[in-house]
Structures are given as C-alpha cells and as structure tokens.
C-alpha cells in the first residue's frame, strides 16, 4: 500500500544537513510504502535507483529539485552508503518516547560518539553520522542499534532534523567503535571488498 501523505517525514530541514554529505553525488528522493510484514514504512528511492548503480545516484541539488518537483510522490531525501568506508552511520530505533524524551541508551551513545545527530522520519529514532571507518557493519535488533559503514548496500534517509545546532560531523575513534560493538553488537554483515571509486559487488537490496 502506498500513500501520498504518510505519517512520517513530517520534518525535513535541508539547511541542517552537513555539507560533507551534500558534496557527494549519492542522493535520491524517497517515497513511503507500507510493509505489512515488517509493520513499518519502507523508504523507496525514486525512479528505480539502485545501491549497486552509482550512475543512477544524484547530486544533492538534483535530488532536492526532484523532491520539490514531486511533493505528492516523494517524502524526503536519502543517501547511498554503499562502498563509502570513510563514514560510520549509527541508527538507534524506537529510542524517543511520545513526550520527545531520549532513552538512556541513546543518550549514552550520543555522548560517546559526539557527532552530528538527527531525528529519523518516524520521529521515534535517531541517526548519528561520524567520520571514520568501522571494520564491519553490525546490528543488534533486540536493542535497536544498527551500524553501517559502506560494507553492504544501504540507502539511508537523511532529515536534517538535527538534535543540536552547529554540531558537525566529527571523527569517531577506533576505541569508541570497538567499545560500542562490544557493548551493543550482536551480529555482523559480511565484509565486502570495496572498489575505489565504485561499489562492492552485491545484489539489489531496495
């Protein structure tokens, strides 16, 4: 089922999106599609774009223009993480309650990483973006913690709904990476060989 006015992505602040991400041609508008099996909204990139086909990705400006030209189709913008080992993206799911308060775990992780943090399209999750490679992608769905660092095909929504003014993308140390994984990690995605200037070989995963 699709809808032109899904109850997600209500806050989108492009001015707050870090310039380092805007400078890369890894963008696409996304539309919301309800997934009955998962019980949540899937974020589908526009115009059949693929994480495995860099030639289909857009500059930030082109993606923004496509979003503005199709407000009834698209909800926001997303960023392709595939084959980008220079950054670590941390997802914290269901960590904001109805009153807008963050969970203790979210507060702890935000403080440890100390980098750009924004609220997800659902309004109930957080995404942290830090500069620095993680040796693998990993997750713990029981705790709602996921870490992506370009080792698998991935498209992530970016809202610009920043938690604090003026907090830029900052470096994450190897020690912090290791500490987070030792405390919260559960399973890892297989590491893939990253092709410089390209993407690792992988199946379609939209």
Provide the descriptors you would attach to this structure in a database record.
alpha+beta; four-stranded antiparallel β-sheet; disordered C terminus
> Describe the biggest sheet?
6 strands, antiparallel
- Radius of gyration, in angstroms, nearest whole number: 16 Å
Percent in strands: 15-25%
Helical proportion, percent range: 10-25%
How would you sum up this structure, described in words?
The chain is 17% helix and 24% strand. The protein is an alpha+beta fold and 206 residues long. A 6-stranded antiparallel sheet has the order 5-6-4-8-7-10, covered by helices on one side. β5 and β6 form a beta hairpin. The protein is globular, with a radius of gyration of 16 Å. It starts with 18 loop residues before the first helix and ends in an 18-residue tail after the last strand.
Write a short abstract of this structure.
This protein has helices at residues 19-22, 60-69, 104-113, 174-184; strands at 27-35, 40-45, 76-80, 87-92, 116-119, 126-131, 138-140, 145-148, 155-158, 187-188. The chain has 206 residues and is α+β, with helices and mostly antiparallel strands.
